[in-house]
Amino acid sequence: MRLAVVGATGAVGTVMRELLRKRAFPADEVVLFASERSAGKVLDGLTIQPLRDDTVGGFDIALFSAGGSTSKAWAEKFAAGGAVVVDNSSAWRMDPDVPLVVSEVNPDDLDDARKGIVANPNCTTMVVMLPAKALHDRFGLTEMVATSFQAAGGAGQKGIDELAAQVAPLAEDVDQLVNDGRAAARKVEHSVHANTLAFNVVPLLGTLNEEGYTDEEMKLRNESRKILGLPDLRVTPTCVRVPVMVGHSIAVRATFARDPDLGEALEALREFPNLLVEEAPTPLEWAGRDETVVGRVRRDLADPKVLNFFVVGDNLLKGAALNTVQLAELVVDRGLVGSAAPAA
């Protein structure tokens, strides 16, 4: 089995490589691909290859995490050469011929990869899907109000680096943080995040549309509908960037067709694979952990059909690299390797 990792030097690609080793993925050969400037360098004892027509054929599985433009340009070429592509970008998520899959939630959708491509959801959507699916199966989900608290690492290594560079200069003058926050915010530069992130929260994450929602927020609505198979699911999203290095958190107000019993809800959450229940989980404490964790599960004060909960997951692991590798494992387990490429 030949496996390609495209975007091998990035933040998610680095975690993918670690997971492939840690989980002993059954590849006989792993080939790393990255940008032209990285081609020829040695990483993990392997020489990084450039993306060219003569280098992308003959793979069984290709894991992509190199951005949407790269995925659009090269995913179909890998698939045409016989690979099942698992793509971590937004390029293919809403394509009707490309399944959008969370490994624990809708694995059967893998069987419908007509283009030979499987899409990995947005990291925020991913975290919400595990408890949403567990509760939907019991009570029938009809609506979600989801407010995210997304880590700097959601923007990749550059997002982490920008936050880290801002902390020390602002921390030097606590009085200014208290009494002249605008001046403090302007002491440092920002280009990755929409505003200074250190000691702050930024309620603008992505590009605004005409209705005042960002593309990040629309992903949360549209991807949730596709993954859960609920095209009419009502979703009201708000995405916020917070000064956390790694780990997305989402506060969810979920409405169901029938009144949810709290005890039954907690039972469903505890029984769901790779989902843990804790009283008040925090992203810092769950950074570097594979599982998704949910807490603050409670009945709504006003509506008997509503449950409120708070869910946390490592956006580089389950939110990206881990689910990608899990999908590759499912492709192997389900005998789909070599079967999903388009017919000549």
From TrEMBL:
UniProt GO MF annotations: aspartate-semialdehyde dehydrogenase activity; NAD binding; NADP binding; protein dimerization activity
EC number: 1.2.1.11
Catalytic activity: L-aspartate 4-semialdehyde + phosphate + NADP(+) = 4-phospho-L-aspartate + NADPH + H(+)
Domain Semialdehyde dehydrogenase NAD-binding intervals: 2-113
Swiss-Prot/TrEMBL GO biological process terms: diaminopimelate biosynthetic process; isoleucine biosynthetic process; lysine biosynthetic process via diaminopimelate; methionine biosynthetic process; threonine biosynthetic process
Family: Belongs to the aspartate-semialdehyde dehydrogenase family.
Protein's name according to its UniProt entry: Aspartate-semialdehyde dehydrogenase
Organism (species): Capillimicrobium parvum
